[in-house]
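Quick one, tokens below:
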């Protein structure tokens, strides 16, 4: 018997398209949409970058973990923050109620999409550049992903079609 996945959980680097793809995918699969970065900012009443600048990247990761662990939704597309994969507890929680889909985008494409990393709210160590962060996170995204979609060179609609094919078992 095929397991029906209530939620579709999108993970990937900043600039991978989680929020944009998430909205389109939610419409196409008749699900509600939630962006956990927006949830964090709404609950904290400040931007992700402000949290990092004021409290540090580790605090942002802890806040993100708490928000993810408190998330209890069904039939949603969930766009996580890029650093969600640093929390095994949060990812285990998300996987228990859904299918985790890694939006795999190559580094040059990400760099071309994200114009100012200093204001993006990246939960990274101060000594890390974006390429280091990319390589560190790739293993984590792969570890938690139930499905991986190679997104480089695809339109948003093609990515969504690939996800839908995967969840219907066509690939």
């Amino acid at each position: 018997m095929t397991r029906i996945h209530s939620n579709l959980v999108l993970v990937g680097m900043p600039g991978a398209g989680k929020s944009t793809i998430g909205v389109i995918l939610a419409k196409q699969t008749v699900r509600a949409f939630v962006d956990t970065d927006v949830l964090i900012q709404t609950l904290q009443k400040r931007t992700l970058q402000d949290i990092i600048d004021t409290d540090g990247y580790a605090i942002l990761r802890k806040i993100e973990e708490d928000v993810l662990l408190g998330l209890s939704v069904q039939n949603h597309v969930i766009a996580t923050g890029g650093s969600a994969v640093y929390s095994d507890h949060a990812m285990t929680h998300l996987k228990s109620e859904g299918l985790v889909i890694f939006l795999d985008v190559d580094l040059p494409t990400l760099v071309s999409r994200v114009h100012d990393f200093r204001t993006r709210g990246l939960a990274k160590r101060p000594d890390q550049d974006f390429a280091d962060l990319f390589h560190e996170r790739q293993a984590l995204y792969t570890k938690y992903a139930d499905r991986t979609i190679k997104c480089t060179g695809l339109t948003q609609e093609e990515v969504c079609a690939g996800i839908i094919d995967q969840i219907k078992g066509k690939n």
